[in-house]
Amino acid sequence: MNLYLSGPAEKVLKSDIEITGSKSESNRLLLLQALYPDLSIDNCSNSDDARVMKKGLGISSGEVDIHHAGTAMRFLTAYFASQQGKEVVLTGSKRMQERPIEVLVEALKDLGADISYLKTSGCPPIKIKGKRLYGGKVSLPANISSQYISALLLVAPRLERGLELELIGTITSIPYIKMTLGLLEQIGVGHSFEGNIIKVAPLDTVSPRTLVVESDWSSASYFYSILALSEAGSTIRLSAYREHSLQGDSILADLYKALGVDTQFQENSIVLTKTSRPLPSKIDLDLSNAPDLAQTLVVTCFGLGLPCHLSGLHTLKIKETDRLEALKNELGKLGADISVTDKSLRLEAATSINKAVSIATYNDHRMAMAFAPLALRTDLIIDDAEVVSKSYPDFWKDLDRLAFQIKEV
Ligand SMILES: O=C(O)C1=C[C@@H](OP(=O)(O)O)[C@@H](O)[C@H](O)C1
Ligand SMILES: C=C(OP(=O)(O)O)C(=O)O
């Protein structure tokens, strides 16, 4: 499905939008619920990634295809490795079969797991024969993906000796590790994170309780971008959000202040308002703690005609696609002067935007959603627009609520 997008006829935007639960929190809680069945989950994400996570947790033998879901692949690997008597094959999309998992597999093997590669060494598909793992100390590189660390932490309280992780190298995507520890804390798991050592204590049972997933801040980023590109006075209420979030992408509220968008926390919502504040002369950010915001931010800057330099992007090359190359190609088609390295991106101030360009999305939900706000500046076509379902299946419906003009072509 390719969609032709134009901006709303009414220039001042106003809408209320309910966003589905965070996919990161949901996939962690789904795993914790499998380990502690007394847990219940409210506002669980309706994303494909949460759906495949549930499906994976429901099997005890045979193959499960987790498509493009990085967290599901990594979290289920740790789960099945520690489930005695279960024997499964975890596979995924063509891209998933290129996304590295060796760091996690090696750490689990050090703990006694039985995991083998079925195609390419270091990547899915993998065969896992579940064993009783006892836990203890293990070291692993921390500069490739935090998901390996979260995967180990999530199963840690179920291991007899708990876990002591030594993180080697610069730790990337730290807020996601803290989110994992924050959720463990909510169910009563003892832990510490000092320097490069994380310790998790064992826990046998939890008392029955319901954990409420906050809505997804990465999904909120597209509305921040829309507001940044809209007329002063435009306002959007998003729910359900909390002022004290476990999600690192809640840094959006600060980042977009510089781009003219104010955030007010009201009960369970955030109210975003576009102000008439003057823009800075350039944006320069290190996004190693919020890698999923890179695409949104660079497209906003392009639409605003602002130069921007983003660093800390070393994880982008191994996500749903090589996001640095994808951004360079697609912004380039729109007329941007953009250059990338393997960990940074530089965009020069745009003076014009090419019209009716088709934006390829590379099986990456964030390519589709990050480019959509540009319809406020020029008509554009988003190819394979259904990719959004990986994290935000209702994205196009919600854009329609904002009166964007959307036509299937
Ligand atoms: O743990 C998580 O839920 C995630 C961690 C991040 O990945 P990396 O740690 O690989 O950067 C992030 O990009 C991804 O969307 C979700
Ligand atoms: C990188 C992402 O997801 P994952 O790694 O879980 O596939 C994402 O949602 O931007």
From TrEMBL:
Domain of life where this protein originates: Bacteria
One cellular component term (GO) for this entry is: cytoplasm
Recorded GO molecular functions are:
3-phosphoshikimate 1-carboxyvinyltransferase activity
Positions that bind phosphoenolpyruvate: K23, G70, R99, Q147, R323, R366, K390
**Where located?**
Cytoplasm
**GO biological process: what's one of them?**
chorismate biosynthetic process
Residues holding 3-phosphoshikimate: K23, S24, R28, S145, S146, Q147, S173, D292, K319
InterPro entries linked to this entry: Enolpyruvate_Tfrase_dom, Enolpyruvate_Tfrase_sf, EPSP_synthase, EPSP_synthase_CS, RNA3'P_cycl/enolpyr_Trfase_a/b
Q: Where are the catalytic residues?
A: D292 (proton acceptor)
Q: What class of enzyme is it?
A: transferase
Q: In which pathway does it act?
A: Metabolic intermediate biosynthesis; chorismate biosynthesis; chorismate from D-erythrose 4-phosphate and phosphoenolpyruvate: step 6/7
Q: Which Pfam families does the UniProt entry name for this protein?
A: EPSP_synthase
Q: Quote the EC number.
A: 2.5.1.19
Can you state which reaction this protein catalyses? 3-phosphoshikimate + phosphoenolpyruvate = 5-O-(1-carboxyvinyl)-3-phosphoshikimate + phosphate
Q: Does the keyword Protease apply?
A: no
- Keyword hit for Transport: no
The family line of this record is: Belongs to the EPSP synthase family.
Write out the function statement from the record: Catalyzes the transfer of the enolpyruvyl moiety of phosphoenolpyruvate (PEP) to the 5-hydroxyl of shikimate-3-phosphate (S3P) to produce enolpyruvyl shikimate-3-phosphate and inorganic phosphate.
Under which name does UniProt file this protein?
3-phosphoshikimate 1-carboxyvinyltransferase
- In which organism is this protein found? Poritiphilus flavus
